[in-house]
Amino acid sequence: MFTTVLFDMGGTLENISYSSESMIKVTDNMLKLLEKYGIQVNGTKEEFWSKVKEGKEEYRIFSEANQIELKPEEIWPNWVMKKLDLNKEKIAEISEELAHMWEVTYFERKLRDGVIETLEKLKNKGYKLGIISNTASLYQVFDVLEDYGIRDYFKDVTLSSITGYRKPNKEIFNIALNQMQAKPEECVYVGDTRSRDITGAKNANFGASIQIKSFLTQRKDAEVEKAIQPDFIISDITEVVTVMEELEKR
Coiled coil: which residue ranges (predicted)? Predict the structure, then answer.
């Protein structure tokens, strides 16, 4: 019997992408934020972006290899802006502001069509709903859920930035299970990547996994073993309801 449906955030409940325009925007916003706090940056805008991008990539490789998430006050001075020779203490003080701004500026986000309808139907069927999301910001996911008007649908929101574990590490799934007061075999996980979402759900012995593809899917799954496959693949978030109805009949 399935009692619980847990969702990924970016790429699943919301469409997410980035572009050359968003890169320019986030660069300008970072420079403005640093200037606001009296932090002087030397060199050109292009040099600044190059060093930030390099630091971001180094942190991505580290965090994905170790399946852990550091706190913003560690990430930004020691990784992202390490090569800029800035005051680390000052960067640490505004790190959450930088992390939050990055998530909503570098990434272009929009709630998927049909999400509210889907959540309402699942709630009315008696399912407990939750979120497990990788994010380097402490508050951005909560703020965006409020902006979308869907925060109250979820019993729990489990974030890598708070737990210290990144999907596919099974520990972040176990923490969510504890918060949701659910057994893994009673849970279905919905995500857009096999590398993080489907692998993680299988590592945690969830009862079923559903993949909905997104802008990020191929970028994250290119090197994933073909043996790692979801139980269901959908193209529209509203199909989650249909899948749950099918699982109920088994």
Answer: none
